[in-house]
Amino acid sequence: MNNRMKSIFLTMIMIISAGAGMVAVPLAGATQVVITEAVQVVDDGANSRQSAVVADSEGNVHLVWAKNNQQLLYTMIDPRGITLIAPTQLNDNGAARTWHPDMAIDSLDRVHITWADKSGQHAIMYTAINPFQDDRDGSAATDGSITVVQDTIVEKRSNNRDWPAIAIDSRDNVHITWEDNFDQLDKFFQQPQIYYAMFEPNPAATQADVIFDSTLLTPIIGHKGHPDIAIDADDKVQVVWDDTRGGKVELTFIIDTSGSMYSEWADVCTVVYGGNFASGGSFQGIKPMLKNANMTVYETLYGLGNYMPGAASSGDCSSVSPNGANAQGPRTSPLGLYPGDDSGGIRKLPGTVYNGQTYSGYSGEDWGPGSNWACLSWRDASGSIPGNPPTSSDHHWNPNATKIVIPISDEGPKDGDPSGQSDDHQAIQEAHDSCVRAGIIPLGLYGQSWGGATTVQSHFKDLSQCPDGQQGTHTRSCPGTTIANSDAGGQVYEFPSSSSSTTQMQLLVEALVYISTNNSREIYTTILDPYGKIENTPGFVRGEPGHITSGNSYTEDLGKGSEGHLVVVNDTRITIDDAYSFHPSVAIDLEGNSHVVWMDGRDYGFEKDVNYEVYYTKLKMQGAGEWDGVSGGLSTYAIKKIDDTPISNVEGPGGLAQGLPFSGMSAYPAILTDDQDHIHIAWHDFGNISAQEEIVYVRLNSTTETGPGETALDPWEPVIVTHWESYKLGPNSFTRPDLGTPPAFANDLGSGAHLAWSDTNKCSDEGNNFQWTLCYTHVLTGQVDVEYDLGETYYHVIEPGEQTMYNLTLNNTTPGPTELVSDTYSMNLSGVPSNWSATLYFTSNDTAIFPETPIFLKGGEMIPFYLRVRAPSIYQATEDQRATITISAISHKDPAIRSDLATVTDMDVVHGINLDTSHRMADVEQGQVAIFSITITNTGNVYDSFSFYDPNSLEGQAEWYLPFGWQVSFPLEVSLDPGQSVTKNLEVTIPISEDPGTNVIYLKGWSQGEPFLDINRGTYDVLELWINVSIRSTGNIVFTIFDTTEYILPGDCAEYDIEVLKNFAPGFLVFSTPGAPEAMPSDTTLDDWRQDHWTVELDFSNAPPDPDGDGKRRWDVGIAYTVTAIVCAPYNASAGLGPAVAVKANLDGHSRVSDSVILSTNVIHKY
Fold first, then answer.
1. Topology of 248-517 in CATH?
2. 380-410 pLDDT per residue, tens
3. 229 vs 19, higher pLDDT
4. d(CA 276, CA 269)
5. CA end-to-end distance (rounded Å), the chain
6. Under CATH, to which class is 913-1030 assigned?
């Protein structure tokens, strides 16, 4: 994919899922939805994961994600899936480690983003961008051009922090919550707590002003994580998270009772129950500490063998009941069956399990078989739960608690030193395998050994993680291909003796607190009133935390917002169940009700690594109690309107596929509410065996009823979004469900949702080389189709100025009840070229349809309409043109509910010229003008201009085929309407020097509107014209004579001097005397002849000679020669006019080229 993501009209496909294994309750068609085809947002070869999505007021989609968990990338897509801004890096830090971004959008369509930066000291970051400052042409923007709030550190200090969530209130201020291992007083052993901060964006300064700095919301020990945040219409801020408060943990200690362990016994009760360490210093004790945090700790301290050291009944152990002095064995019932029964005390363990049988060693150092016994007591070799190992007494585990076995020793696991023997390794392998099968976490504590401490530590490592055949304290590599090489999930710590440093003891205490508090989780919530605090606190100071740190304690600002307090609903428990609950997501509807989803393991057991289902509940926080910040929060039962309800299909332990222990997993949900108070839920599902992993969506149409979800909710139908086999939203770990990420999920402008996720396929069946890419789809709650009417075609051809009509239909094809899925649409036209016109009309009444015309359709309803397309006029059209006009029907509920139908109208433009003449041949003399009458006709269908070659240019003379010196007068351009003709004269001037003969010239004309000139196509025409040039007769030979009349006496002669001039060109002249008197016979003498006859003679003495004697004389141009005509009267002539004598000269061979003169001679009367 290049800078512009694939420009695609998202192909709407109808997903009607009756998918096996996806149904929670009986199905109904009311929740059928339309899923657009998934598109790949980015294809850059990088790993793109952990995305967030929002939509703006125009329906555009904005996505951010982590590229290779380093850069924070952003892209913008329009409602049709066309990229407006290509992937653009946002974070400034080039060495960043970006995790878990979240995003929100404000009323001005500015995008606010928060993320965790895990480079160096972990930081929670925030920035804001305005994508509308970019040109949105499909290319990447620059961070600087769109940023309105620079990268801002929300929190950065020691320890870890992660999982930020963001929300925007009605004043466009920013609220961020996250989990953070830091607490200023270091009271909580670096266990993650929930923090909150509030900012006011200041775009003018490109910064965010702090209103509330990092505020501790959970000042109590325990693990909290995965917060989510939502804001109601009154700008009350609700935060939800998962919390170990309310959880249960059972600690079973297996303690070496040999003499070398007395110092450890002296401190073990201090660690568990509180008191003073032998080496000095005091400790509250794990049990009372967690009890104060609303966590239940069940514990039993077993001393190996039948002998208990004195330390087991003295010091801080003396108040434990029973203790070592009582020498009681294992209980016969689990702890926690009735209130207050939460301690097993200190007991002896005379029988353990080794090699499948009871083992009773008397050294008190059989912690390997003892750990094996503890784990077999929950799940034995036959798989029974609770287990029944071969010993006479078993440990009875609380079935609902997180189970941890804690062996403590300073010697080998079987019979003590020497360690590292074959039976030691066998004992550890047996215990490891039993604990893995039972799901019990072994936590090894090694004491100060007499020697070979490394070997003892190595045994503990093998138990807590896995045996790898190598001795040492290195971290084991546990591939998990077999039970023997699977990671048991534990750790190993030193249990320091009284003489060792207090630092080691502090580390041990922290480790035990961590493992004890990292038990099952419940979902909690709190509500803040930041504006109540701001507006009702005199002298409120911005930038301070919302909690108070004083002395060695934290104090929340609890109370009513109207009285100037921040926390108006203190930590309130949403779930009450002993199973693990993770990843809550919250949304608030228009009535202020809170809707929460989370992943819950209650249907599969109480361990962490079980299958989970997606659970939902509806809460009504208002009215459930006074919002006065009272400690303990509101009642869980009072706030519940719809009980905890599994939305995903509950396969149950018996419904899991063979060999696929997590085939019932439904996890990492996200939730939305829309303006119609529909509930949208999406999650990551593992229930499809063939696809392995799927993204699933469901919509709850009605949540107005109360009670159990099966009766309070309308039937719902989960819909599979993805239909290919790949890994999604990963990488995931079934044993660490706390690490997964939910899909990106956001409201659209209607009652649908935008959905994005990471995928190892290219959002289809096509693989992506196991690289993570980003997929996006739109869940629509409506469908509309613009279609051709029966018999209509998408393609029409018209000529300029003509029009055509397309008969079409508009259909609301949304499935479901007609009233529920009714919608109003607008129709628009796009792609109308310049000078074209296109208009929509209702077929029923021929009323025009404009973009602002609302069209209401019930589900399944259809209306006919037509599109009228008119081509440009004959004066506007210049060439063939295709008009691809798209009719778009767009829902008023959601612009992404649309249909686009393209019509194709071709305008066929014809350019043509025809040349004609009344005559194709002309006769003309030299120096004269030949005239042709030329008719030019526009044979095309558009107004056109026609060109002719310029005869004055060299090119034109060549194209006209003009002889040298010829001149042509003809228009160079003529413009005509279609079919119009015009007649123009073509004048050809022949030079006087042109040789006589026949010549041809060519008149060539062509259409200016057609780039391809072709006589066969009529866009070019040639007229062939012939011209016969003859010698010029007029003025070629010119006679000049003074007088043509003379008077003579009889017998006299008159002489006429004629000046003969040749013009234009030299030539041979032939003289003659047409009409002259009869010639004298040869047998008569002149004297006799003249008696009665006239005679004529031409004298050429002053003219060119006749060298050949053929009468042809060469006359040069421009020289006048004198030829004298001598006319003699008869001797006997009578008085009067004699005969008229003509003298003529003509060009040799051209009788027409001549001149002549008539001479008149009068005879005078002689008296």
1. Rossmann fold (3.40.50)
2. 999 999 999 999 999 999 998 889 999 999 9
3. 229
4. 9
5. 131
6. mainly beta
